[in-house]
């Protein structure tokens, strides 16, 4: 079957039979039209002429031309979906993109907060010093103290406070872990729990509730963090994941124990935690350059590399 006609048929099925969103259809059209042109340039104008070798060449060409790994992964996903449809239609016997993966891109270092910024965010005193301000301080302290994900914190119930210094958390994959709660977070939580009854409905089990007495939503938590950052005058955007990064970074700087940080973060794989080793090295490098007598630049001395 001609590749161009097959692409048109697939896009029609996406739009009218599968009811895909206009954005999804437009993205698939861009990806498949680009691949179709590439395939035609290499003499493959029919669906059966496309094989894994052509797709590998396509990935290599895109990588050489500067496409990010995430873009190449999306291209392959579109081709994979296209050939899965062709197999369902009885047009193709195999999916040449099945099992083919784009090259891994470099992991970007997460943006974090300094210790001073995290402290300022927690200790800022808004004009409103009622239950909501008390709740928001407890949110910040708990994010920074225990490195929770936004979804984990939003799902916390009052019963999850197992002890003054322990918290039960339901993480990804419905896996439960127990995390420690630092001294400042303990104080903030205790203050909030004393006031929580003023807002919470009697049938609401949530640890953090809104002004309406119901569980505080993820979106509301994000908004409150952003507001608190503005009140603190930090000058940088603050969201829950940034506090999680700050927790991980400062823990690794202080302990050097990657395995412990992995457990505290609830990462299933150590590779997810290893991104913080680069941040830790950057910190160590700054300390080294500032402290080692043979690393400091001498006044009037030659520039590095001179």
Main-sheet strand order equals: 1-2
> Spans of 5+ residues with little confidence (pLDDT < 50)?
298-306
Q: What is the share of helical residues?
A: 55-70%
The average pLDDT value, as a whole number, equals 83
Specify the oligomeric state: single chain
What does this entry look like structurally?
By secondary structure, the protein is mainly α. Helix content is 56%, strand content 3%. It has helices at residues 3-17, 22-41, 52-64, 69-88, 115-123, 131-146, 150-154, 183-196, 218-232, 240-255, 258-265, 270-273, 275-291; strands at residues 166-170, 176-180. The chain is elongated and about 70 Å long. It starts with a helix and ends in a 15-residue tail after the last helix. The relative contact order is 0.09.
Topology of helices and strands:
Elements: H1 3-17, H2 22-41, H3 52-64, H4 69-88, H5 115-123, H6 131-146, H7 150-154, E1 166-170, E2 176-180, H8 183-196, H9 218-232, H10 240-255, H11 258-265, H12 270-273, H13 275-291
Antiparallel strand pairs: 1-2
Q: Which terms would index this structure?
A:
mainly alpha; two-stranded antiparallel ribbon; 3% strand
Outline:
With 306 residues, this protein is mostly helical. Helix content is 56%, strand content 3%. Helix 6 crosses helix 10 (240-255).
